[in-house]
């Protein structure tokens, strides 16, 4: 149990989980590039002791490995997991009262502790004193990537009605006045968005505190999807094994355990351009107006350490966050949506673009012919629940005799593709919401969804090599098998949707003329089929981050019947479109410059990079 971030770093170093980087490192691109190489190599946490332009040390990759993350929380993991389970299923406490007495006492001991005044050892500083870490060449400036953003409900102020969330914070660049303003990027359905809406209706500014650092449990608390009624501040106490200590200074909440605290106000309808920023889909989220925070005061504790992570094409360090959350929350989705057994938001596809789910099929047990019925009801529930509502593609089935695992991605998708009736089992949602960071749609937050729900006996045997029908197609070259039942082909560069519709119609007609192609239900048109088919992750990333179902899904022999779209083979256009955000590409000069740290005598000479 750590009282602060420094104790965690000392413990990790003692057990061989952390390396100190003694060389001076530039926060402009270099620190991020080093982190990315070490993460990819499965390396340790990194303590940057000499950050150019700042007197503060910085640490990254704390959560870069699931084993290291569980090591950090080894003393409090089991009890925290048990208490979350009680919130999901209170009947457990009644069935096993003596076993759960300890859990109840643990929760009481984790209640936040209110203190007075500014903590001893805190000093007032400025935004410009912080490590100004810029991660990607086209980023709009320096960003905080592991913030704990605190706000209170204007109608019910107080810590237990507060929200602690992790939303990116732009420290510099664009039109922000240094040391006076910073940018906050968050979606309106998030907790802080609800608080700001209430404050705006009252015509009042919303007071916000941003905590950086402190015990690692506080960082994880900011990203946890907690059960209704379980405060992030209580959870922080549970997981850290120590009460969250706080006070109010000038009307702002100040965490006594944080390394840094930034306080300020968001005024109604006050926005400024925020971004670009390299995001978790592997592209730049572009510049858009988001709330601007007027900085009140900035504090740092004595010996403060700046934690950060790097966001980019998955998997990255935030993948471990997802794994931690899944293990801690366990079967929460089963409690929230009865009938759903498992939902897997696929990290390699950018999380939100692709969901794989297992449900139940109990509506018509008396029918001999098996087909999706209850599954379609469950699909609506899934796509209407929290962050799952941002999904674009939902592959959904029910277990029968076979035991399914949605984390076996190729096996799971193959199971569905074997059973899909492509004239019945494709269901679209058009003109709806998608992830703010997803630029495959028709505008900011706007796009479409599709449900591929299949159940029953196999209808086809999937091809295990490229079918002859896909060889030698005019204007479409280099067909490559991605996995059984899925083939990628290269098409001409995307021009516009009018031309794309003509190209896909010609492709569909050419395939149709060859005769039925039953064994290949999915064909992906892309810019580079060799790259797409090279790894499963490449397929998932390209296909599902570069396509909008309503606009980019075509079919062989497609038709409508009573407004239901059907086809014989799905064609997904996953080519790069002009309106989409550019992918993240490292700076070659920076890549060469950081090689000095991995060379003989460098701090990272023992990290085996690829």
The biggest sheet, with number of strands, parallel, antiparallel or mixed sense and barrel status, is: 9 strands, antiparallel
Structural class: alpha+beta
Low-confidence stretches: 90-105
Shape: globular
The percent of residues in helical segments reads: 25-40%
Distance between the termini: 35 Å
Average pLDDT number: 90
Number of helices: 19
Strand coverage percent: 25-35%
How are the SSEs ordered, and which strands pair?
Elements: H1 5-14, E1 18-21, H2 30-40, E2 45-48, E3 57-60, H3 66-72, H4 77-88, H5 91-95, H6 101-109, E4 113-114, E5 122-125, E6 143-144, E7 147-152, E8 162-165, E9 168-170, E10 181-185, H7 191-202, E11 206-212, H8 216-221, H9 232-240, E12 245-249, E13 252-255, E14 260-274, E15 277-278, E16 284-285, E17 288-301, E18 305-308, H10 317-329, H11 332-336, E19 342-345, E20 354-359, H12 374-382, E21 393-398, H13 409-419, E22 426-433, E23 446-453, E24 477-483, E25 486-490, H14 497-513, E26 522-526, H15 529-534, H16 536-545, H17 549-552, E27 553-556, E28 559-561, E29 564-566, E30 569-573, H18 588-593, H19 595-598
Parallel strand pairs: 1-2, 3-18, 4-12, 20-21, 21-23, 25-26, 26-30
Antiparallel strand pairs: 2-3, 5-17, 6-9, 7-8, 7-11, 9-10, 10-17, 11-14, 12-13, 14-17, 15-16, 19-20, 22-23, 24-25, 27-30, 28-29
Helix pairs in contact: 4-6
